[in-house]
Design brief:
Layout (H helix, E strand, L loop, with lengths): L4 H14 L5 H25 L9 H26 L8
Length: about 90
């Protein structure tokens, strides 16, 4: 119990800040952020409608392929780390 005292005090210090309910000012800031995000999404959707598959350059296509391969690789690396084994699951 004595050894846990510093950790408990640190937890309580952070809990006072992080676990408090939101203030009314927080909701107004959230509303502004949501409106800005919705506006940006609308603008991006308008630009996406102009995209045509024939307008993709070879460089952009390779970049998209490399990004996709990287994302898939990190996903599988996470699976390997989570399983702690390269092949299949330990039974």
């Amino acid at each position: 119990v004595v050894a846990a005292r510093p950790q408990l005090e640190e937890f309580l210090r952070y809990a006072k800040v992080e676990l408090t309910p939101p203030l009314p000012a927080d909701f107004q800031a959230l509303k502004k952020t949501a409106e800005k995000t919705a506006k940006d999404a609308k603008d991006a959707k308008g630009q996406m409608g102009k995209f045509k598959i024939g307008e993709v350059t070879v460089r952009d296509a390779w970049l998209n392929i490399l990004v996709t391969v990287e994302v898939i690789t990190w996903f599988y690396m996470g699976e390997v780390i989570g399983r702690r084994h390269f092949v299949g699951y330990k039974v």
